[in-house]
Design a protein that fits this description.
There is one protein chain. The chain is of the alpha/beta class. It folds into 2 domains: about 150 residues, VC0802-like (2-Layer Sandwich); about 170 residues, 3-Layer(aba) Sandwich (Rossmann fold). It has 10 helices and 15 strands. Helix 6 crosses helix 7 and helix 9 packs across helix 10. The chain is elongated, with a radius of gyration of 23 Å. It starts with a helix and ends with a strand. Bound molecules: S-adenosylmethionine.
Length: about 350
């Protein structure tokens, strides 16, 4: 039965920003993967064969191959049978991507046992042990089921959320997996006229451009440096010709009335970017301007951490109604994602 054994699906654990597990599950199932909820910040995936589908997920931070070892403590990993299985696991992952080095991510990773394991793995795999910057990340943890240990082997040299298009970063830059999730929540139609207001380095815009066709993609920011930064990233993504970038005030756009189907924005949170005081004027003026440019059936997805202020502004206006709100963990904060529709 060797073929049947080989075809058994492998379990993977995908790390997500806490709050995004339902979005990641939906994405994984849409591309044909079997996916199950695990924790607020992780989902399980089952996949056979090549890892193309798993590595193509946009709303997850990183994906690890998950292997259970029936051992009482990591030292037993040095035993012949378990060590050979560990080397085979490393071989299966490194066969698919270019890895030069490895590191451990585990409590006690500097212990003598882990040093011995590093030496043995270095010799058996030919990969260099680089404790700080190793590309292949191996994590060891006691099995949550109570007996044995789990080895999590990250399937890519960098986390999936570290996009190759990001050549320019800005303070307040959005995690790309969160941007992808916001775009999914907005719904993507091939004929969408899409606006990423206050685009900063262009994360939402580029993620949307890479996700699906659109009939129009526009990004705007008041800040010249932000527009230049977004342009660099768009160039790196090979998308610069598909997108219109403008340096404009998002409360006074040069766009005509009613011509936008989807709006996304990561608003200034009033801490590292902007100020709570300026948000008092900015947020209501922005909602009014977005209502002017939005088509009657438009969808708008906004992210902010200035929650009290934003909810007060929402309560005082009649242009938009809230369809969905979710809390997400990002950069040490819990901002909220709002899905809004124009009021009739
Ligand atoms: C939180 S940052 C956006 C970061 C972006 N999501 C990224 O990934 O880089 C908010 C952006 O809003 C821009 N901004 C603030 N007020 C604006 C306004 N009135 N019109 C247009 N852009 C504005 C700032 O210049 C800043 O780039």
């Amino acid at each position: 039965m060797p073929n049947a054994r080989r075809r058994r699906p492998q379990i993977f654990e995908a790390e997500v920003l806490a709050g995004l597990a339902p979005v990641a599950l939906a994405e994984a199932r849409d591309v044909g993967l079997r996916a199950e909820p695990l924790r607020e910040d992780a989902i399980h995936l089952l996949a056979k064969g090549a890892l193309r589908l798993v590595k193509g997920l946009r709303t997850v931070k990183a994906v690890y191959r998950l292997d259970h070892f029936d051992i009482p403590r990591p030292k037993a990993m040095l035993g012949d049978q378990h060590f050979r299985r560990l080397v085979a696991t490393v071989g299966a992952v490194t066969r698919e991507d270019a890895f030069q080095s490895f590191r451990f991510g585990a409590a006690g990773r500097e212990s003598k046992v882990m040093q011995r394991l590093a030496d043995a793995l270095q010799e058996a795999t030919g990969l260099r042990f680089d404790p700080d910057d190793g590309e292949l990340l191996l994590r060891f943890r006691p099995s949550p089921e109570g007996s044995g240990w789990e080895v999590l082997t990250r399937v890519t040299p960098r986390p999936l959320s570290a996009r190759s298009w990001r050549v320019c970063n800005m303070p307040g830059g959005l995690n790309a997996s969160l941007a992808a999730a916001m775009n999914r929540l907005s719904g993507t139609g091939d004929r969408d006229r899409y606006l990423n207001a206050m685009c900063g380095s262009g994360t939402l815009l580029i993620e949307r451009a890479e996700m699906a066709p659109a009939s129009q993609l526009t990004g705007c920011d008041l800040d010249r440096e932000a527009v230049a930064c977004a342009r660099c990233n768009l160039q790196a993504a090979g998308m610069v010709d598909r997108v219109r970038l403008v340096q404009e005030d998002a409360t006074r756009l040069s766009l005509p009335e009613g011509g936008i189907d989807v709006i996304t924005a990561d608003l200034p949170w009033g801490d590292a970017v902007g100020s709570h005081q300026s948000n008092l004027d900015l947020y209501p003026a922005f909602l009014e301007e977005m209502r002017r440019v939005a088509a009657p059936a438009a969808r708008m997805v906004l992210l902010t951490h200035d929650i009290k202020l934003f909810e007060g502004v929402l309560a005082a206006q009649r242009s938009w109604r809230v369809v969905d709100v979710r809390r997400v963990y990002h950069g040490g904060h819990y901002p909220r994602i709002y899905l809004l529709r124009p009021e009739a």
